[in-house]
Amino acid sequence: MPVIAPHRSRLARALARGAAGAVVVGALVAACGARTSLNVPPPAAPDPECRVDADCPGFGDLCYPVVCRAPSVAQLDGGAGDAGADGGSPDAGAAAGSIEGRVCVTLAPRDCDDGDECTQDGCDPDTGICGHAPRTADRDRDGHTGPLAGFAPGAPGACGDDCDDTNPAVHPGAKEACDGVDNDCNGVADENASYVPIDAEPVRISGDLAPAAPGGIAWSGTAYVATYTGTNGGSSVYASSLDATGEKLPPGEHLVTMVNADAAGGPVMWIGDRYGVAWEDRRDADYELYFTLLDGAGKKVVPDVRLTAAAGFSLSPALGYNGQEFLLAWQDNRDGVFNLYGQRVGVDALPHGDNVPITASVAGMLDNESPAIAVGVKGVGLVWTMGSAGVHYVEFQLLHQDLTPAMAASIDLTDGATEAVGPAITYNPGRDGAPGTYIVAWYDKSAAPKAIYATVLSEDGQVIVKPRAVTSPGAFRSRYPFLRSLGDRVIVLYADDRDQNDGYELYSRTVDLSLDPLSAEQRLTNAPRDSILPTATFGPDGNLAILFRDDRDAGEHHVFFTRLTCQAGSPP
Question: How far apart are CA 343 and CA 280, in angstroms?
């Protein structure tokens, strides 16, 4: 009968099985010849995430440092250790020099906040040195910076108190002069002064180019630059630098656009150290918008920058500046009907973001055309004509500084029963801390009278003075308004044919902020045929320089220059 082995512990049984296995292995080795016993190494350790700091993604950025650490040291660092200096040696904190299990650890970023809301804090990744650039610029170098967009000059958080950073004669504490601007930033230009025509013949600017039409005019502090469309085998945009009387300065008349680009437009704006100018041309099959910068003499300093690329025509650019960026609005039929679009452009001429849709309509509905823009403190005022062959409205929309609409829908300033067209707009800054206003004007081809009409809107887009006629043409017509604000009153320029001098003449009138007249209607031109399409800017000695189209020379369309001058009144 079999012998039953006595009970053994688990440990004893395991040792017995190990001994038996050793005997079997030994027998196998003996059978294969004289060899050494097998040497089975332990499993290899996994590769570390890094061996040195330079193995870590982002290594070398001293603003956001990253280092290689042993797990125990990484836990101690907790993301807030020292970046070290060797940049490539194994971490001295690793146990016994081992690299096993080393990982990349992101340390605390460099803190560059200087606590000043008026600086743009930054860090140089190569050196780890903090920088604190001012958020606002002093472009006219008068020791005062302009405010941030959306802030009144000198208001809390504005980071600047200059109410016009394009003109060194304008800043808080400056001496008020009869020069068409608010020198001391109290909200009023040329207190109690009036503007009267200079007794001089207008100067022809467009040379031998015909037909020609005005684009814009601006004053740099030393000279004017006038831009205009001229035709010489094909239409192009030209610029001329002018002295205070309108005479051309070197380099004379010169091209802004390509030769015969079929270009038109040319609104121009001086921002303290450069001009910005925009136009339309169709060098690329259909009309697109372009932008460039000019120096103080009006010469181009950067290549043309194309702002639109959609199918259809982009036309009639309007140009503004908010102290930080150029702002453009135009009409565009990429949607099958003309809508309005906007674009922000940096002072380096590069677009900021994409084209911004402002209006929205579908094919078969009314077109949105002829925009005009005025930059306020809180936002941007935009006016345009909405209509078709039989219907015309003048519309107003308030925009944010990024050109997106700030109102759910635009406001009808007219009722569509008459032919109201050709709107103009200016922003009137508030005096002594009061809110600003927008003044809008247009002409009406079928109302009674066929006058220039105007209205006043608050800074949040509410009508505060209802539309009313501000010219008195009688049985005749006033057309093509241009507005210039003086803080407590507004100069209105326009064309009128009441004198029946074989066409239209230019006129001016000053009205207060309730649109009541402060001056008589003054006739500015006296030649037969049309003088129309005025645009203006203030220059030296209180002169208001006016660029306009005039047909006095054998009926050809040319661009001319004339002036109003400041006539000082009694002290305020």
Answer: 14
Between vectors from CA 182 to CA 433 and to CA 371, what angle results, nearest 5°? 85
Separation CA 148–CA 137 (nearest Å): 9
List, edge to edge, every strand of the sheet that includes 212-219. 212-219, 224-231, 235-242, 248-255
The beta-strand segments (E) located in 232-336 are 235-242, 248-255, 264-270, 275-284, 286-294, 305-306, 314-321, 326-332
Tokens of 84: 């070290």
Strands 194-197 and 489-496: unpaired
Helix (H) or strand (E) holding 12, with range, is helix 10-32
Please tell me the distance from the alpha carbon of residue 508 to that of residue 78, in angstroms, as a whole number.
73
**pLDDT for 364:** 67
- Per-residue confidence (pLDDT) for residue 190, from 0 to 100: 72
| Residue 28, pLDDT score | 38
- Tokens of residue 371, six digits: 């925009």
What phi and psi, each to the nearest 5 degrees, are found at residue 75?
Answer: -65, -40
Q: How far apart are CA 275 and CA 347, in angstroms?
A: 9
Q: Contact, 251 vs 304, CB < 8 A?
A: no
Domains in the chain, start-ordered, CATH in brackets?
48-94+120-133 (no CATH), 194-567 (2.120.10.10)
- Convert the pLDDT of each residue in 216-261 to its tens digit: 999 999 999 999 999 988 899 999 999 999 999 998 999 999 877 8
User: 99-124 pLDDT, tens per residue?
Assistant: 778 999 999 999 999 999 999 999 99
Q: Is the bond preceding residue 449 a cis peptide, omega within 30 degrees?
A: yes
> Which pLDDT belongs to residue 568?
77
Contact (CB, 8 A) for 148 and 390: no
The residues of the chain scoring below 50 in pLDDT are 1-34, 78-97, 570-572
pLDDT of residue 362: 64
Sheet of strand 522-523, all strands in order from the earlier edge strand to the far edge? 478-485, 489-496, 505-512, 522-523
Query: Residue 110 burial by CB count (10 A; 0-12/13-18/19+): exposed, middle or buried?
Result: middle
